[in-house]
Amino acid sequence: MFVTLGSKFERNDFTGLEVQPTARARWSPDDRRTLWGAVSRAVRLPTRIDTDLRFINPVTGALVLSGNEEFGAESVVAFEAGYRARPGSRLSLDFAAFANRYDNLRSQEFPSRLGAVILLDNALNAVTSGFEAGATVQVLDPWQVHAWYSYLHKDLSLDDGSRDISRGREEGNDPSFIVSARSYLDLPFGLAFDALFRHTDRRPFPAVRSYSRLDLRLGWVVRPGWEVSLVGQNLLHDRHPELGSNQALRYEFERGVYVRSAWRF
C-alpha cells in the first residue's frame, strides 16, 4: 500500500492564509487490480470581479450589481475512491465514485445592504455526488473500443437569511448523466477509421434538451509524418444547442464535414 500526505499553504491579500491538505492511498493486491482513495481540501480565491465589480444601468446611471470587499474564499472538501481491474489481456475496467461538499460559494443577494442592488456574497452551499464507470476492450489487435458513463447528483442550499433570488439555478445547471463510446480501428494501407458517440442528458435551467452526437474520422497516413483525414462532426442533427438560454441568439453546434492535412517534422 502507498500513502501520500501533503498540503499546500498559501497566503494572499484577500483572505490571508489558506491551507489545502490532501491524503491519498493506493493498494494493489496483484498486478491486475488497484484500489485507491483520496480526501482533499481546495479553495477558490476571490477575484477582482468578486470584490470590485460595478455594473451601472446606462439609462438611469443607477448601480445594479456590485462586488463585495468582504467576499471570502470558496472551499470544497472532496472525497474520492476508485477501482481499476484487468480481468483479461484485452479488457480493462475503471470505476470511480466521489462526494464533494462546497461552502461559501458565490451568491447574488437582492435586495442587499446597499439597497435595490445585487451584491455578490458567500451564502451558497452545495453537496455533489456521483460516479464514473468505463471499460476498454481490445476487440482485435487493430480495433479498440472504449465506453464510459458518468452520473452527477447536486443538492444546493443557501445560508439562513440569504436573499439570493436565483437560488443557485445557474450554478446547478449541469446534465445528470453523460454516456459515450469511442472506436479506434486501424485498417490496411495506412488507413484508420475512428468513431465517437456521446449522449448528454438535458440541462434544467436554462433548459436545454438532451442530445446525441456522432463524429467520424477516416484517416490516411500518406507517408511517415504526413496524415490526411476526412472528418464529419455532429452527423445526427443539422444543428443542436448544448447550453445557454432558449433565445434566437443562442449558439447551436452545426453539422460539419472537413478535410484536414497534418504534417509533423
Q: What does this molecule look like?
A:
With 265 residues, the chain is an all-beta fold. The chain has a single domain (42-263), classed as Maltoporin, Chain A (Beta Barrel). 2% of the residues lie in helices and 65% in strands. It contains one helix and 16 strands. The protein has one helix spanning 48-52; strands at 2-12, 16-30, 33-44, 54-56, 63-66, 74-88, 91-109, 118-140, 143-158, 177-186, 191-200, 211-223, 226-233, 239-240, 253-254, 256-263. Strands 1, 2, 3, 4, 5, 6, 7, 8, 9, 10, 11, 12, 13 and 16 form a 14-stranded mixed β-sheet that branches. Strand 10 and strand 11 (191-200) form a beta hairpin. The chain is globular and about 70 Å long. The mean pLDDT is 94.
Which key features would you list for this structure?
265 residues, mainly beta, Maltoporin, Chain A, 14-stranded mixed beta sheet, two-stranded antiparallel ribbon, 1 helix, 2% helix
